[in-house]
Amino acid sequence: MIDISGAIEEAKRKISAAPARKRLVKRAIFRANSGLHFLDECLTEIHTGATDAAYSRSCYILLSYNFELVLKAWLIFNRNGSTKHDLLEGLNSHDLEKLSKKVSEEVLLEIGIKKIQRKEDGGFIEYEVEMAEGRKIIIQDFVDVRYDFEKEILRNSDLEEAKRMREEVAVLQVIVKDVMAKNETQGKHSLAMSHFG
C-alpha cells in the first residue's frame, strides 16, 4: 500500500497558506500595476526622449521598484509558507539576481523570464533581464540609482531611452496581467481543493 499521508499534509498546508499568499501577491502586483501605468504616462507625456538628468533617475527608480514588486509577487506566489512571515522571509533584498535564484529557472520561465543577471555599466549597477523570447530589459539597481550622487561619474546617455523604457514597461505589464490571472486561479483552485480535505 502506498502511503500518501505526507502528500495530503503538504496539500493541506498549501491550502491553509493560500489566503495569506493570495493577499500578499495581490497587494504587490496591484501596486506594480498602478506604478507601471504611472511610469508609462511619465514616459509618454514628460520624459519622451533621451537620457535626461532631471527625469531619468526618477524613471529608473520607478521601473526598478515596480519590477521588484512583480518579481517578489511571483516569488511569494511560489512559496510554501503558511504565515505572512514565512512567505516574506528572505525577500527583503533589492538584489534582483539573488532574488531570482530563490526559484527555479522553470518557475521564472512561467512568467517569461529566462534569467536575471547583475552587471555593471560605466560604474553603475544594473540588471539585464533576459526574456524567454530573447528580448533584454535593463533595470537599474534600486539602491545604486538612489545613491548615485555619491559617484564622480555620469550615466551613459541613451538617445532612445524613453522609447526603450516604454517597451520594457509594456513587457512588464503583460507579466503583471499573467501573475494577476494565476493568483486569481490559484485562489479558486485552493477553495475547490479545501472541500476535499
Low-confidence stretches: 189-197
Shape: elongated
Overall mean pLDDT stands at 89
Count of alpha/pi helices: 7
State which percent range the strand residues make up: 5-15%
Category by helix and strand content: mainly alpha
- In total, the number of strands is 3
In terms of topology, how is this protein built?
Elements: H1 5-45, H2 56-77, H3 84-88, H4 96-100, H5 105-109, E1 113-121, E2 124-131, E3 136-140, H6 142-146, H7 161-194
Antiparallel strand pairs: 1-2, 2-3
In a few lines, what is going on in this structure?
This protein has 197 residues and is mainly alpha-helical.
Tags for this entry?
single chain; 197 residues; mainly alpha; 3-stranded antiparallel β-sheet; 3 strands; disordered C terminus
Notes on the structure:
The chain is mainly α and 197 residues long. The protein has one domain. Helix content is 59%, strand content 11%. The chain has helices spanning 5-45, 56-77, 84-88, 96-100, 105-109, 142-146, 161-194, and strands at 113-121, 124-131, 136-140. The protein has a three-stranded antiparallel beta sheet. α1 runs antiparallel to α7 (161-194) and α2 packs parallel to α7 (161-194). It is elongated.
